[in-house]
Amino acid sequence: MDLEYTIFQSNPLNNFSPISGEDGVIAMTVIKKLKDYLEKNQVRYEGGVHEPVYTSQEIAASMHVPGKELAKVVMVKADGKMVMLVLPASYRVDTKKVKKVLKCKRLGISKEKDFEELFPDCEVGAMPPFGNLYDLEVWVDQVLAEDEFIVFQAGSHVETLKIKYNDYVQLVNPKVGDFSVHL
What's the CA gap between 45 and 42, in Å, rounded? Predict the structure, then answer.
């Protein structure tokens, strides 16, 4: 099976490199890890490069992707355990729904400083939705499960990957629940 890899820039910049700056080595490490993982599992993917942006809505706009198809990661601490939530960029976590879905008593949305060490090969806040690669429980919101494809950050603030949602499910085996509301 031939694999596809396409680099596209939605806003080309002069002298822009997806791995420039001091975090370049980190970004290259995780993108290589992800690509190797996808290729090993014979998953077709597309790669994208964009100017540095830091929110999921900015990424979706920069990549000209509907917010519903861009998968963002939100980390929560449920009864003391870190859990990865994956939901569309155009949605937000509803903590009451999350508590019900996770069947937990205590829940808090984690700050980047609370989980950055869990993702040593990623730029802070740019971790991909592959919690299985980091020994984390992963939950996907049911709204995202309706998409044919998902786009997600690939460990840096300038690179994304796009794969079929069904391939993502086969690789990650996330639990699916209703825990978000549209912005």
Answer: 9
Distance between CA atoms of residues 34 and 156, nearest Å? 12
Interatomic CA distance for residues 178 and 58, integer angstroms = 24
Rounded Cα–Cα distance for residues 122 and 95 (Å): 26
> Helix (H, G, I), strand (E, B), or coil: what is residue 32?
helix
For the chain, helix, strand, coil in percent to 5 are 30, 30, 40
Residues of the chain below pLDDT 50: 1-27
Write down the pLDDT at residue 28: 53
- The candidate with the shortest Cα–Cα distance to 20, out of 152, 158, 160, is 158
Global pTM? 0.85
| Structural domains in the chain, sorted by start | 7-177 (3.90.960.10)
How buried is 120 (Cβ within 10 angstroms: 0-12 exposed, 13-18 middle, 19+ buried)? exposed
Residue located via tokens 């825990």:
179
